[in-house]
Amino acid sequence: MSNRNWVFATKGEQPKKLVLHTEFATSSNKHLLVKGDRSPYEGDLVYWSRRLGRHPELPNRQAILLKQQQGKCAWWGLHFLSGNVMEVDHKIPLSQGEKDEWVNRQLLHRHCHDEKTAADGSQKSVIDKGIAH
Predict the structure, then answer these.
(1) Are 59 and 53 in contact, with CB atoms under 8 Å apart?
(2) What is the percent of the chain with per-residue pLDDT over 70, rounded to a whole number?
(3) CA distances (Å), 21 to each of 1, 2, 6, 29, 80, in order?
(4) Cα 29 to Cα 7: distance, rounded to the nearest angstrom
(5) Under 8 Å between Cβ of 106 and 69
(6) What is the pLDDT of residues 86-133, one digit of tens each?
(7) Are the beta carbons of 86 and 108 closer than 8 angstroms?
(8) Neighbour-count burial for 7-39, b at 16+ CB within 10 Å, e otherwise
(9) Residue 133's pLDDT is what?
(10) Between the CA of residue 113 and those of 6, 89, 103, what are the distances in Å?
(11) Do residues 66 and 49 lie in contact, with contact meaning Cβ atoms separated by under 8 Å?
(12) Which comes out higher in pLDDT, residue 62 or 17?
C-alpha cells in the first residue's frame, strides 16, 4: 500500500490480517484547528462565519459572503471584527440596471457601504425615484 510503513500485531497463535481501505485513508491536514478555547456559543459571529460559512445568529447571505471574502470588507479590505455592523451591497447598483445575483453582491462595513453608495450615485438614483434605501 504505497509508502505506508505501518506495523500491527495481534496476540495469540492465529495472527489476524489488518487492511487499511483507501477510502478511509484521508489526510488529517484537511481539518483546520480551532483557535484556543473558541466555541460557536461565545458570540464571535465573524470568526465562526468566516470559518464555516454559516452561523445561527447571522443571515446566510452575510455568512457566505464573509467566508468568500476571507473575513474582509470588500471596500477597504479591512477585517470585520466582532460587533461591526455588516451590510450586503450590490457592486453595481440595481438602480443602474444590474441584477440581484450572487456575483453582484459584496459585504461591507456599514460606514463603507454609506461611502460606496455616495460614490457610485446609487443613493441619488433611489431618492430621484422616491424609493427608500
Answers:
(1) no
(2) 57
(3) 10, 12, 13, 19, 43
(4) 22
(5) yes
(6) 999 999 999 888 999 999 999 999 999 999 999 987 766 555 555 544
(7) yes
(8) eeeeeeeeeeeeeeeeeeeeeeeeeeeeeeeee
(9) 45
(10) 56, 7, 17
(11) yes
(12) 62
The amino acid sitting at 124 is K
Helix (H, G, I), strand (E, B), or coil: what is residue 103? helix
- The contacts of residue 53 (CB under 8 Å, 6+ apart) are 63, 64, 66, 67
Taking domain 40-128, whether its CATH number is 1.25.40 is answered by no
Which pLDDT does position 1 carry in this prediction? 47
Query: What's the rounded Cα separation, in Å, for the pair 1 and 93?
Result: 56
Average pLDDT over residues 29-46: 66
- How far apart are alpha carbons 2 and 27 in whole angstroms? 14
Name the amino acid, one letter, at 21: H
Q: If you ran DSSP here, which 8-state letter would residue 50 be given? A: H
Give me 49's grid cell: 462565519
Residue 83 has what pLDDT? 82
CB atoms near residue 91 (< 10 Å) = 12
